[in-house]
TrEMBL record:
Residues 3-118 form the Response regulatory domain. Pfam families: GerE, Response_reg. It comes from the Bacteria. The keyword Transferase does not apply. This is Response regulator.
Length: 213
């Protein structure tokens, strides 16, 4: 079972999310939080597999709560919001969120996203991914937010995998692109995350975009 903590300040929306997740045979709603501080406290207490986190909540916003939950290794975080603005996307992903979905996501896609993140792969809503790529494509000469020197410890193969992550490819897609086993891709992803000091493959994707690799 995938144990999920639902953090959403609007009670009606939270109830709907709980209902959707509870309809999946392999997902259990371990708890509910109405604000960011409660989300962090319950994550520490319940140790769920995943926190479904609203980005805008009282007392402690979702980005700050995500940073704490991920930083303490309490759970993976899948951010859910009505906003697809870049500052929310980058704030959540840099805080260590493993995924980012919009609240108008279909129920089946939400369940699929929870399973994907619980399985160790990140996910970003297609509409958001398009905006991210457009953002970087429109500013090819902008100063990178990251130092390219961070890549010096990566092997050639790890750089190739990182580049694929920057395109938002899944492990299966990376395996097909680079002609390697999916298990080998997972190993490369794990190693490059460790070398780069990153918490999630989505953070790696943001880094790849920033460095233009």
């Amino acid at each position: 079972m995938i144990r999920v903590l639902v953090a959403e300040d609007q009670s009606a929306v939270r109830a709907g999310l709980v209902l959707i997740l509870g309809s999946a045979p392999d997902i259990e709603v371990a708890g509910e939080a109405a604000d960011g501080e409660q989300a962090v406290a319950l994550a520490r207490e319940l140790r769920p597999d995943l926190v479904l986190m609203d980005v805008q909540m009282p007392r402690l916003d979702g980005v700050s709560a995500t940073r704490i939950v991920v930083g303490e290794g309490l759970a993976d975080v899948l951010v859910l919001t009505t906003f697809d603005l870049d500052e929310y996307v980058f704030g959540a992903l840099r805080a260590g969120a493993a995924g980012f979905l919009l609240k108008n996501t279909e129920a089946k896609d939400l369940i699929a996203a929870v399973r994907t993140v619980a399985g160790g792969e990140g996910i970003v809503a297609p509409a958001v991914t398009r905006r991210l790529i457009a953002e970087f494509a429109a500013k090819p000469v902008r100063e990178p937010a990251a130092d390219p020197a961070v890549l010096r410890d990566l092997t050639r193969r790890e750089r190739e995998v990182l580049s694929c992550l920057g395109e938002g490819l899944s492990n299966a897609a990376v395996a097909a692109r680079l002609d390697m086993a999916e298990a080998t891709v997972k190993t490369h992803v794990s190693r490059l995350l460790g070398k780069l000091g990153l918490r999630s493959r989505v953070q790696a994707a943001v880094l790849a975009q920033e460095l233009g690799i």
